Amino acid sequence: MTTTTTTTTSTAGAAPAAAQDAPRARRARRALTPGRRLPAARLTGPVLLLALWAAASAAGQLDPGAIPAPWTVLRTAGHLWTDGTLPTDVATSLRRAAYGFSLGLVGGVLLALASGLSRTGEALIDGTVNLNRAIPTLGLIPLFILWLGIGETFKIAIIAIVVYIPIYLNTHAALSGIDSRFVELAEVQGLSRWAFIRQIVVPGALPGFFVGLRLGVTGSWLGLVVLEQINATSGLGYMMFQAQNYGQTDVILVGLLIYGVFGLISDSVVRLVERRVLSWRRTLSS
Amino acid sequence: MAPHTEQLTRPAVSLRGLTRSFEGRTVLDGIDLDLPAGQFTALLGHSGSGKSTLLRAIAGLDHKVAGSGELSAPQRVSVVFQDSRLLPWRRVLDNVLLGTNGKDAADRGRAALAEVGLKGRERAWPSELSGGEAQRAALARSLVREPELLLADEPFGALDALTRIRMHGLLRRLWQHHRPSVLLVTHDVDEAIVLADRVLVLDNGRIGLDLTIDRPHPRSHRDPLLGEYRERLLAALGVTEDLA
Asked: ipTM value of the model?
């Protein structure tokens, strides 16, 4: 009974307040989505950073020996480009990254398909890949040098390993996590095994694959930097390693800048492809 | 109407001593049942009474379930689930055509979509459809295969009341036009009475009541005779009106 009384009182008390509120224009609810995208949003941060760097250099706040001015870096890049060493180094690095990445991509996808679509494949592959994952790939460098020599092959092999693992893991998880309701649907609609894989399993696993792909792209650059700075006689990393010996900070910054640009471009390309392929998804980012 | 009458003589679905159990608990306990071709049947029961188990057995979806008994069902069976189960990565028309082949498949898919009132939405993504529209698309997907038997597992359970009424009319029209045998699993007594010509009540793994509803369509809830059917069905389900 007490409860009833309380309820009645509070309702009675609230009623006049509600009546007062009624004629007032109701304010729109706070939207929880991040709102409209800013134009060129992804470039805003980097450009701001660059502006700060330029301003600090112009004001003489930075030691030119430690952090040279942006225009010094650009001039050095121009010199290196015209005398022909930079184009060669860039081409070498790109080739290594491209080969390693392609191998890792194909390997990761094939292994994930074999392991995600058959129980035998899973028994053979999944545990092995997870064992491989437990060993830090960069720790394999000494062994791979002994096996494959210090040439290009071992570098490409290491990059491929760094790339295939995230692609395998994410694609495999997506393939084996297919919604059982869709499996049931495929049975009801009388799909053949092949049609089921092609029309339901693979498209359903694509979001997971793209997560792996983006991690793989980042991994390929990471592997490249490490390999070129300790075990190379050419390439961007080698150029930076030499510059370190001669104290050429500007050359090191040129190398870092190019790595950064490569990373940004490759990530953007993957995002673009992802948005095209997964256009059916309507998420916060759209 | 003559060929229709002739069809009714041969059962579309025939069950003899159908038994299914999960982890030692008997869910279906020796069910004998014939569903004549072209009949609209509703299956009522409490939640957990085994309605869905029976439907899934007829659909051939119970691979890992222990059981025995004889079961015969037509070749072309379609299932409509409680959720529309549209693949989010396929446009509506491609969803309707899932598992359908042939040169004229696309035309048949468009016709089926038009029939359920989704003409013009062929290129939409499932995420752009409302709950009712998605369920219409699922109906189109089941119709495009021209099923001899349509199994529906609480197809309107997730819809709001107004949409549900409209879907009732649609399902009845589609049935009249295509004449498949229909087994509609539902927990909604009124839905069963309005739609079906025969209502079964599943109780403790057996058919507890088998009621033929001989009233003309479209039916109204205000029909006093339907009220009598309703009371009998509620009694068979163990619900007495004076409690409400």
From this structure: 0.88
Sign of CA dihedral A237, A239, A242, A247: negative
State what percent of residues in chain A have pLDDT above 90: 61
CB contact under 8 A, B87 and A203: yes
Contact (CB<8Å) B88/A200: no
Q: What is the dihedral of CA B183, B185, B191, B197, to 10 degrees?
A: 30
- Å between B129 CA and nearest CA of chain A: 12
Among the partner-chain residues B60, B90, B99, the one whose CB lies closest to the CB of A191 is: B99
> Are B6 and B64 contained in the same domain?
yes
In a domain, A213, yes or no: yes
For residue B103, give its domain range: 83-146
Contact B85 A195 (CB under 8 A): no
Do B128 and B154 share a structural domain? no
**Residues B179 and B227 placed together within one structural domain of the fold:** yes
* B127:A282 CB<8 A: yes
Q: What is the pLDDT of residue A125?
A: 95
Instruction: Using a cut of 0.90, tell me whether the model's pTM lies above it.
Output: no
